[in-house]
Design brief:
The protein is built from five helices and 18 strands. It has 448 residues and is mainly beta. It has one domain: Beta Barrel (Porin). Helix 3 packs parallel to helix 5 (376-383).
């Protein structure tokens, strides 16, 4: 990306940050009936040339290249009645991935890239949903204002229903230290489980409903969400009686040596028209020399199939200035990716430090390690030369994909942050014949 475009986006973000710095968060009302908040994020990434003994149709380019994403989002909300909240989230997004296509990795290096659609700016409705809360006692708690969050009060014991167009990740798999690719870690495997093939359109959103039940230190969440009409496509399938993504999550809050933490267990089940890797491998072997791209998956896709996964999420405050996180998930891995990425087993763990320890209260330092694995069925398909939606080097010398990520977020003002980030990716797309890849990134983020 040219320096002129980079400088232009930088000026926009610094102006936004300067305007936002004049807003005194302490003056925010305890109870809001209307909200209008905004965010702007620009993320530039580059990887130098890396070694590759061979490349295939879905290989990340081994020569040096750059990528970028830019997003501007409005978070609009109102309280139409007691306990009710209505939110609309329009967004403008732009960007180009590595290799001019979103391929070649299980854990992609930029969580914003699914929302980009080329160098032009595309305006779309990201979310439109209703949230209803029924309070059931247990003491009132103040709800802090935020993006898609009206300031107010809610009982510690309550039931919350969310209906409409939103992301499964708006409700499920929260984690204080690794959740937001705009402010924290950038890699996909750090803002949720990489093996969580949650139902959504190609941008990560869907239609459905989620129900949450909070009781003292416990929380229970269940939801049914729409997936894409075709795997990893943009149009959603609204036949929720036939094709869907179901999930249930149990959460428990605790203290260890007087430090707060939370444990979560998440189970999910998708049902959709998907291709199985075993069927695709049979088709591939029966059509030697006739295979181009993901034809084998297209040829055997049609019948409804089920996908399952189970994950464990922990966050734990270590002291007043640091915290630890861990996510582990295993999916069955028998069928092609429905809506997220090419990972069947994932682990991510890390530590985040607040800058108050060294006199920089608005700064944040994070380090993490991720490992992604494939099922035997997916692995055999790729070893035979198969190509799936995101990966396929034409052959496979299998090794787990291992990723280190470190970032340092610098608070330039109350509402503006600048973040250098580094990722080391070993065995990209699970192939020991390619890589490692070094990814360097710079991110600017403003909130108003």
């Amino acid at each position: 990306m040219g320096l002129q475009r980079i400088n232009g986006f930088c000026r926009i973000l610094f102006l936004a940050g300067g305007l936002a710095a004049g807003i005194d968060s302490a003056s925010a009302a305890e109870q809001e009936d209307l909200t209008a908040r905004y965010q702007l994020t620009y993320n530039w990434q580059k990887h130098p040339a890396f070694a590759a003994r061979y490349s295939g149709a879905n290989s990340i380019v081994s020569s040096a290249e750059e990528m970028y994403t830019f997003s501007a989002t409005a978070f609009l909300g109102m309280r139409p009645w007691q306990g009710g909240e209505l939110y609309l989230t329009p967004e403008i997004a732009s960007g180009i991935p590595f290799s001019n296509n979103l391929v070649g990795l299980g854990g992609f290096s930029n969580g914003e890239i699914t929302r980009a659609a080329g160098t032009g700016f595309t305006l779309y409705r990201q979310k439109l949903f209703l949230r209803q809360t029924w309070n059931n006692g247990g003491g009132s708690e103040h709800v802090e204002p935020g993006l898609n969050q009206l300031a107010g009060f809610a009982d510690k014991n309550r039931v919350v229903l969310t209906v409409g167009n939103f992301s499964t990740l708006d409700v499920f798999d929260p984690n204080t230290y690794a959740k937001d690719a705009r402010t924290q870690f950038m890699n996909w495997g750090n803002w949720t489980y990489a093996a969580y093939d949650y139902a959504a359109d190609a941008r990560g959103f869907g239609w459905g409903l989620a129900l949450e039940w909070y009781r003292d230190d416990w929380a229970l969440r269940i939801a049914r969400m729409s997936g894409p009409q075709d795997p990893n496509g943009l149009p959603v399938d609204l036949a929720l009686d036939k094709h869907y993504g179901d999930q249930v999550e149990i959460e428990h809050a605790h203290t260890v040596f007087e430090r707060p933490g939370k444990l979560r267990v998440l189970a999910w089940h998708n049902r959709a028209k998907l291709a199985s890797f075993s069927d695709a491998l049979v088709w591939l072997n029966a059509h030697p020399g006739q295979y181009t791209g993901p034809d084998a998956l297209y040829a055997v896709r049609g019948d409804e199939k089920d996908k399952y996964g189970l994950g464990f999420n922990v966050e734990q405050e270590l002291n007043a200035a640091s915290g630890f996180f861990l996510r582990i998930m295993k999916a069955d891995g028998r069928t092609e990716t429905h809506a997220f990425t090419e990972v069947d087993g994932s682990l991510s763990t890390g530590v985040v430090f607040k800058g108050a320890s060294w006199g920089r209260g608005a700064d944040m330092l994070g380090v993490s390690l991720m490992q992604n694995t494939l099922s035997d069925e997916r692995r055999r398909f790729l070893e035979a030369g198969g190509t799936s939606f995101f990966i396929g080097d034409g052959a496979l010398h299998y090794r787990p994909e291992t990723i280190f990520e470190g970032y340092y977020s610098i608070g330039l003002s109350k509402n503006l942050w600048f973040t250098p980030d580094y990722q080391y990716i070993e065995n990209p797309a699970y192939n020991a014949e390619r890589g490692p890849i070094h990814v360097f990134a710079l991110r600017l983020h403003a909130e108003l």
